[in-house]
Design a protein that fits this description.
374 residues, 8 helices, alpha+beta, two-stranded antiparallel sheet
């Protein structure tokens, strides 16, 4: 990943908003917007990402890839609580195969580089995001890979679930941890993330101090930047280049959360007055970028979801990291804090805000790396 290759482009339009409707709620408005969906994953992350056009080009359906999570997991799942809320697992995949080979050696299986649980509250006006550190040691449930059952494991890293059994195992693991049924699944890989950012025209951020990380190939002076796809990928993957960070996945998560909010603002700035050619390019790139569950595996379904999320601004999203502490046996790993973690998942199950007490004593929201980027 080059640190500054390509032309940095300012966004041509500052108009428009995302609007839409989900499967648990009637359409809130008849107004239409040209760009109707970007779930930013980031996040890695993901990060939360996807897209579609209000005036739908049906051929975009052929770009989409779907995974039948319901068929894979059957009835071995938490109950589906129909209270108007929505829960989505967003993964950033770290596969090094194909176009992703530039980012490292392919070791035979992708892992979830970024994982975020997006909880949209009843009424779809606000949301909470819980980032799960990839290095969290958890009890992984038994999963199926290539038709064969893979035994569960204790003290397994969270991101191995995807490697063991793909998206279905990742969803099963999150549901096992949280007791919350995931309504949807969205995944984006390195190359797709980079292409989507470039199609959007870059993402604007401001750094208060320089960022220099040879591992992620990111070198930014302090100041205002319009990040290219390569630079954006470097930012959400950097561990070592931010002053005040501890070089861990926890500091990187703070950067990812900050970037997701900047990306959301960028998407809202791409409005109906942007050229149809540019909008189609964004939609074409986005639909080639994401893998979803089969319930979202159409432009119409993605457009419907986007409408239901359209009223949520970045200021109405509460982002936290799963409450963790460094593992006493292996300081390079973290383990969930039982009481605080139970508070987080319990609040979301009841469609309530995550209490501040749930983050007490957690290593996840410390380090201050987010303050260096806005």
């Amino acid at each position: 990943m080059a640190d500054s290759n390509g032309t940095q482009r300012a966004t041509a339009s500052r108009r428009g908003r995302i609007r839409a409707t989900g499967r648990r709620r009637k359409a809130p408005s008849r107004r239409r917007r040209a760009l109707t969906l970007t779930l930013c994953a980031a996040v890695s992350c993901l990060l939360l990402t996807g897209a579609g056009l209000g005036y739908v080009y049906y051929q975009l359906n052929g770009n989409l890839k779907g995974v039948d999570i319901n068929a894979a997991l059957g009835k071995d799942r938490p109950g589906n609580v129909d209270n108007g809320s929505l829960d989505i697992l967003v993964l950033g995949s770290d596969s090094r195969s194909g176009s992703n080979a530039a980012y490292g050696t392919d070791e035979g299986g992708a892992r979830s580089d970024t994982a975020m649980v997006l909880h949209v509250y009843k009424g779809h006006k606000k949301a909470s995001v819980v980032s799960i550190p990839r290095d969290t040691l958890i009890t992984r449930p038994a999963c199926v890979k290539d038709g064969k059952e893979v035994a569960g494991a204790r003290r397994a890293m969270f991101n191995t679930a995807y490697e063991v059994g793909g998206p279905a195992c990742a969803v099963k693991t999150v549901e096992s941890l949280s007791g919350i049924r995931m309504d949807h699944f969205v995944e984006v890989d390195f190359t797709g993330f980079k292409k989507l950012i470039d199609a959007l025209g870059g993402v604007e951020i401001t750094t208060s101090k320089p960022i220099d990380d040879n591992s992620s190939h990111l070198h930014l002076p302090a100041g205002h930047h319009v990040l290219t796809g390569e630079q954006s990928l470097g930012l959400v993957r950097t561990r070592h280049g931010v002053p005040g960070g501890d070089g861990s996945d926890l500091g990187r998560i703070q950067l990812q959360q900050t970037f997701v909010k900047a990306l959301m603002q960028q998407v809202k700035n791409v409005g109906v007055l942007t050229s149809p050619a540019k909008l189609y390019d964004i939609a074409d790139t986005a639909t080639k970028t994401v893998t979803t569950d089969t319930d979202l595996n159409s432009v119409g379904a993605l457009t419907g979801l986007a409408k239901s999320l359209g009223g949520i601004g970045s200021q109405n999203i509460h982002m936290v990291t799963l409450p963790v502490e460094y593992d006493k046996l292996d300081p390079a790993r973290v383990v969930p804090l039982p009481r605080q973690t139970a508070q987080v998942w319990g609040a979301l199950r009841q469609d309530r805000a995550i209490p501040k007490t749930a983050l007490k004593d957690s290593a996840g929201d410390k380090g201050g790396t987010a303050s260096y980027v806005k």
